[in-house]
Amino acid sequence: MDTFIDKLAQKKNAQEMIRANSAAEAAKMDQMQRQMKAYDELMQEIRRVNIKTAENVDNVRGVLAQCMEKLDALETGSGQETDVERQLAGIKSLLEERLTQSEEFVHRENVKVYRNVQAAFTEELAKQTEQGGTSKGRGTPLWLSIVILVGVAVDIAVTLIPLILNMTNVKWF
User: Fold this and answer.
1) Phi-psi bin for 139: left (phi > 0), alpha (psi -120 to 50), beta?
2) How far apart are CA 11 and CA 28, in angstroms?
3) Model-level pTM?
């Protein structure tokens, strides 16, 4: 009879351990799903900023094209050089001001995205260290963090390089 009771106690203890492990795994899965949702929201914000940046680049290109047309018309249509020079100087200063505003806007938006991503990683790191994040298999894998950071850096570079090249009139081909 004692062996039967011992076996029953062992079986009950093992079932409780399985239930506890299942509950822990479910909690961890829920936490990972929330974390992935937060990362998805950050990526959507990055996409929105990039779309805004692309729209601004298109607007700046349109304004520059209009200004170039006006400059060409002024150079060919007006006979008074002082008047043309004064108008050209005004247009150039306007272009420089718009370009500076565009650069500042792009910079501000990129800094916002960078800070949001940095804050998310810092917050997640704090959570992981509170939970004893040094144990293996917990938290965000290092490779995923690196991939996300590289993706953000590449996205910013892809957005800014054509803008900078256009501003400096550098032609690749």
Assistant:
1) left
2) 26
3) 0.38
